[in-house]
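Slide 14.
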Amino acid sequence: MGVDDGIGELDNKFDLVLLLAMAIRDTIQIGDLRLKAENKVVTDFNDPTVKQVIEDLVDTMHQNGLIGMAAQQIGENWKIFVTEPRETENRPADQADTLRVYINPTIVDFSSEENEIYEGCGSVLNGTLFGPVNRPKEITIEAFDQNGNKFRLNCDGILARVIQHEYDHLLGIEFTEKISDYKKLMTADFYRERIKMSPEQIEASRITKKTATKL
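Slide 15: predicted structure.
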């Protein structure tokens, strides 16, 4: 999902070495048929290919300052995505979440109540386009983690939002297909200036529920 805060420039040779060691992949862009292709179910959690996809996905998400990313965004058609709304200057610790890996996920429940949050996407003009999307406020998802352990997560706020955004990717859906008002599309600069820290966006993004259970 959309670009996060806190992405800085490399400031020394050590940073460069770390970057070269990371598995950074190109983020494929809207229009690429791989975003619409069917995704494979993971049947072997110890498969080196699957482990590499997860590693590449996390590294690419971090490098691009995103809070979520699905496997097909790096050209790998597996039912895998990751989320991590990190603590930043504008997101306090109680509104952040740990890195989570979702393999073969299914959203099993969602609230009838919806809210509107502006979304962006690394696969839509490299995260430089934002628009309002209405989605369920609260969801429950079941998935497997990177070790093959099944879990259930009930949550709301920005965590529920990024999960739904990435889950849509697994269905071949980009957020641009769910814009509630195309007249409100805007660049990242205008989003940061007008929307990001608005009371409405902050309230809709607030995490008040976050319960993970092993199954």
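Speaker note: The helical segments are 13-21, 48-63, 157-170, 188-195, 199-205.
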